[in-house]
Amino acid sequence: MVRLLVGILVFVINVLYRDRPYPRFYVLETVARVPYFAYMSVLHLYETLGFWRKADWLKVHFAESWNELHHLLIMEELGGNKSLGDRLLARTAALVYYWIIVALYMVRPRVAYNFMQQVEEHAYATYNQFLTENEAELKAQPATAIAIQYYRDGDLYMFDEFQTGQKATARRPKVDNLYDVFINIRDDETEHVKTMLACQQPDAQLSFQSPHAVTLPPTEVQVVLTPEPTEEVENAPL
Length: 238
Description:
This protein is mostly helical. It has a single domain, classed as Ferritin. 69% of the residues lie in helices and 0% in strands. The longest helix has 25 residues. The N and C termini lie far apart (77 Å). The relative contact order is 0.13. About 4% of the residues have low confidence. GO terms for molecular function: alternative oxidase activity; metal ion binding. This is Plastoquinol terminal oxidase.
């Protein structure tokens, strides 16, 4: 089922958008956000019903959706969403995939994570090929304003949060031109793959945590006793 879902998505993107890279990336990034929304929806439901509460999972998945949002905003800034037909196709596919992943995540969460792993692997390969074929052209164009804000000038907490394969603040990419922007997007997809793999581990419910999580060593509790006030203190004027 997962191979079929991914195969349909890849077929549509590769066939309909063979010579239109920015609309192709727009559709890809619109759909790529959806599974993270689905994961969070189910996790919120579980928390509401008292089944399971794990804040780190919600934080990381929201950070992943935040990262994909900025990929999408970059593609829109590059004109990938100009066509009404492209917008309609992307949003219809996103709606369909959302409900499929919600149902799949409730029944087989590891399979739902494997779906997203395959989508992100395809995204990495797509961006990597685009970079190889258009290096000189991309290096001659300036970085987009949204990319500069997200990767360099903005608050990088959310950028660090989705990269569970390394320590927070370990990666600080450059954004000097459009080639750098696509390098960063491609490398983001690699980090998503690592996070999806971590979510599929048998002990993930115990071991998975936010990159910002800090395990503090046990400390001794010190009790400070407050001395009883003396008679002079009690009768002293305020």
